[in-house]
Amino acid sequence: MATPDTAKTEKKKNILDLFIDGARNGFTIGTTSLLPNVIMAFVIIRILDVTGLLHLIGIVCAPIMALWGLPGEAATVLVTAIMSMGGGIGVAMSLYTSDILDPAALTSLVPAIYLIGNPVQNVGRCLGISGVNTKHYVAIISICFINALLSIWVMRFLLLFF
Predict the structure, then answer these.
(1) Which end of the chain lies in a sparser environment, N or C, as judged by fewer CB atoms within 10 Å?
(2) 72, 123 in Cβ contact below 8 A?
(3) What is the mean pLDDT of the chain?
């Protein structure tokens, strides 16, 4: 417990110190949390591509993804986003640099990635800790998917005009 004397001697941080602390924390989060997910996504897509599984996924998922005007391989972006939003972005960028996704498809997928919102992590971190009844998990996760899929249609519609 701080006494009145020690409270006076504690240094009040100025704006520069606060900025440096925030930048340090942001760098730590980026290098320990985001970067590994993105690298993992690039590696997974490369493995799927080399083994031919990416092409197979594209063929199998093409009819479903065509409902949203996307190639079948775009399904890998949505599946990866279930585990990690950073991973979903990494997969999307990997497919874009491989010329599987065009700019319009990439633009359509970005909001969907964030609306899916890595429910696997959220179930453990948020829902489990807060005491949400497990029977509601399916509905909560389903709402994420519905919102994500609707966002793709909205983005495709907006891209027609802009």
Answers:
(1) N
(2) no
(3) 85
